[in-house]
Amino acid sequence: MVHERKPLRDPQFDLAGLRIEVGPVDIPRTETVARLRAAIARGSYHPDPHDVARKFLRETLEQLLT
After folding, report:
1. Residue 2, CB half-sphere, CA atoms under 13 Å: how many?
2. Under a CB-based contact definition with an 8 Å cutoff, are residues 2 and 53 in contact?
3. Exposure of 19 by Cβ count < 10 A (0-12 exposed, 13-18 middle, 19+ buried)?
4. Distance from CA of residue 12 to its chain's centroid?
5. Nearest CA to 34 among 26, 42, 25?
6. Rounded to the nearest 10 degrees, how much is the dihedral formed by the CA atoms of 38, 46, 18, 65?
7. Are 58 and 18 in contact (CB under 8 A)?
8. Handedness of CA 13, 22, 62, 28 (dihedral sign)
9. pLDDT digit string, tens, across residues 36-57
10. What is the tens place of the pLDDT at every residue in 5-29?
11. Where are the domains of the chain?
């Protein structure tokens, strides 16, 4: 099997794209935090593991590229 080589992307371009997609990452949304805390307290918070992994990777990339 032959693998095609893909050109490397500019990290600044990738970071800009992530910022557009994710939005502000340093501003906690009060309503969202309150809703999540309530769901956790009730035991009804069941996040999608793929979503958690995706968001973790985005945050990690944000930290690495800034």
Report:
1. 1
2. no
3. middle
4. 17
5. 42
6. 90
7. yes
8. positive
9. 999 999 999 999 999 999 999 9
10. 655 566 555 767 777 777 776 667 7
11. 11-21+30-65
